[in-house]
Design a protein that fits this description.
- The structure holds 2 protein chains of 2 kinds.
- By secondary structure, chain A is of the alpha/beta class.
- Helices cover about 40% and strands about 15% of the residues of chain A.
- In chain A, the strands form 3 sheets. Chain A has an 8-stranded parallel barrel, surrounded by 7 helices. Chain A has a two-stranded antiparallel sheet with strand order 5-6. Chain A has a two-stranded antiparallel sheet with strand order 7-8.
- In chain A, helix 6 (about 220-225) links the parallel strand 9 and strand 10.
- Chain B is built from 14 helices and 13 strands.
- In chain B, helix 3 (about 100-115) links the parallel strand 3 and strand 4 (about 120-125).
- The chains are: A alpha/beta, B alpha/beta.
- At the A-B interface, helix 2, helix 3, strand 6 and strand 8 of A face helix 2, helix 3 and strand 6 of B.
Chain lengths: ~450, ~450
Amino acid sequence: MPTLHLVASLMTPGHFRSAWRLPGADPEANLDVGYYVRLARLADEVGLDAIFLGDGPALGADVATTPSGGIDPLVLLGHLLAVTQRVGGVVTSSTTYNSPYNLARRFQSLDIVTKGRAAVNVVTTFSPAAAANFGLAEPPDKETRYRRAHEFLDVVTRLWDGWEPDAVVADKATGQYADTARIHRTDHAGEFFSVAGPLPVPAGPQGRPVVVQAGGSEGGLALGAQHADVVFTVAQTRGRAVAFRDDIRARAVAAGRDPDQVKVSLGVVVLVGETEQDARQRADELSASLPVDDLAHGVLAALGLAGRDLDEPIRIDELPEVPVGETGSVGFQLSTRALLAERPLSARELVRRTAGGPAGGHRLVVGSPAQVADDLEAWFRAGAADGFTVMFADTTVDFERFARLVVPVLVERGLFRPAEVGVTLRERLGLPSRSAQPDRSAGAAAVTQAVSA
Amino acid sequence: MGRLHLLSSLMTPGHFRTAWRLPHADPTAYLDIDHFQRLARIADEVGLDAVFLGDGPALRGEIATAPGTGIDPLVLLGNLAAITERVGVLVTSSTTYNSPYNLARRFQALDIVTNGRAAVNIVTTHAPAAAANFGLVQHPPKEERYRRAHEFLDVVTRLWDGWEPGAVVADKDTGVYADVTRIHPVDHHGEFFSVAGPLPVPAGPQGRPVVVQAGGSEGGLRLAGDFADAVFTVAQTKAKAVAFRDDIRSRAAAAGRRPDDVKISLGVVVLVAATEQEALRRADELYATLPIDSLTASLAVALGLPDGAYAPDHVVRLEDVPDAPPGELRSAGFQVSTRALLAEGPQTLRELVHRGAGGSGHRLLVGSAEQVADDLEDWFRAGAADGFTVMPADTSVDFEAFARLVVPILVERGLFEPALVGSTLRERLGLHSVERAPGDASVRSLA
């Protein structure tokens, strides 16, 4: 039986966004690098595969009530990887608001300085607030964003592959430093980008940093099947998760890939108590800190049921055919529908089940360490996921509890193997190495010495 | 008398790019994080103000003979700042090939995670190869690049100023997290950018990260006068350096700033050894690694000498060199600097290559630790600079030699004060803290 991977989110205060209001909470922990360093060192100590930060380049509209948007994740995770030795870093970056040359170069650099622990979580960013920070009156439509993301990742991976492994000759006697015939331009000219390449330096230990993809729409799934090493997803029911994993694996095969080369990482929000009772009590405290009515109204709007009573159970057959697409995440909507297909729930119940997240949100698991481990084991054995992206109800409490109390249980059961120094993130995830291959295809011209200085 | 600041370049193999050919050199050190971490720890230990990396987003043709552009400097210096406590980091970024929102956000983040040790070195990028990596057929002309840089820095500084101190309320009873009337968007609509703002989080310890500017053209000098906290410059003669500093200070005054708000950091390539004899021997070794014929030929072109073949021992006089710098082949600062050198007397092309540290163009200083300290003291006392950006000739040797041999002498003479934990880079450089945008009625808030 293979082992599962564990990626842990550092999102602070937690997936209960109002956790900053709890009596013991430091409301500005989300700006405190010392706090993040402590969590990263803990992740490193127990051997988690990676730490993760979601991101969008804008201030969120709800800053009046909660920290909304964080420190730039490349800078923050770059810092945390510098003070750790084992744990990988999954950095969310937008293909809509970056250029492929800069992004390819930054993640290649991160891979070099971390000795093979870099991963990029590629998102297309649908927030209108982000668009306005980059000169756009409104965000591009979803189809356009994913067309751009496809071209973006195509360029980025070719940039990463630009230097053949033996391109650096470094012959002290002759003075030849690099064999420019083994350094390949990208020479890409497409719909969105023209990029000559190559990158200034050869690849890091992973060849290509790990690529994670998170979108659940048709465009996102196609992108994931073609380019992603890991697909990060949401599911409220096991049936839905198994079906999703089967689907993404079939799509990978259709794209000419080995299905085991695409790992599914299922998002789950955990709240761990010393005992089940302790966990229940903390869940009640956290729920009390939520603006439940506001969130429930948001859930109803996202489901196309605005104006409905917050306590009235919603049956799946009542749901209108939601115009999935532009306004919200498709994955979250599908996930919520699957939950309602099992049994009717009111909007307020939906908010509680999903950690107060957007339009349904990730599944919340509340329990003792053994119960949380049981749950993850059951889903993993059912084929629901290759591993989990663990998010925390209250990060300041649950991150450490998960690391210290749940991880050892998973290790003891042979379900998880702690990361080791000197092993790349790609190796740990069971992904094939993607070192640069000589590219003799059309358009892969050798760099000439005529490139002007 | 004030104290001088010391920044040190990490460029590897060194400002003699061919230093990788020396017997002791690891030719791939410029890709080795352990190498850079070792240097950063030395810098931290002796209390240098900052470590620095130049940059341009492209591979250049010289890769056939030497490592050029390296690892992304934000990622590399971010790593080094994480494993040190005192030393600042000066990261070169292009205003031509970045967006102001992303850049403002990254440097604000760097300032937060380093507890106030972040600085950005703003360049407009003159490598034409970079343009082709960002969808441009042609590199934008210099005038346009600086117009963009002006608008860019205007937007970036306003983004940094967007959150008033006290904007985060975090009242657990009422559930109010931030007072949105104290968070201000930028709402910028200009020639190059439309940026709404604000940034997602409040400012770090410095308010605004330190802004360094490096261009010596008219556009660059104007940019420096308006925005820079420090100007990185090149000078081969003391008189030229003094005149440059006076010029920048008067430009700052003309822009309504205090002259002391703009520090001059003079580039100098240092080759230092325990004795003068040893330093001279090492210099000869380094000269021998240079591809002198091709360097001579490109220098002849850069100086605007008439077309033709020039031997390394060809003697150049000031009157051989055309008055107007030949366009955009080379930066204006280097051109003026070389002319100043020729004004002192004729030089062979070989000597010019050597004195320009094998093509870097900066002044080469070769000597014992005492001699190097004497030179820096002399230039500092003459008003040539507020401090120095020290560029090691062979970084694998000279970085540590400068830190361990020269810095203690400067400290002993009272010319340099090692950095302390807890002081921001802005404070160490003697810069006034920047007042944030006031929450007056003219500034729209989010509410």
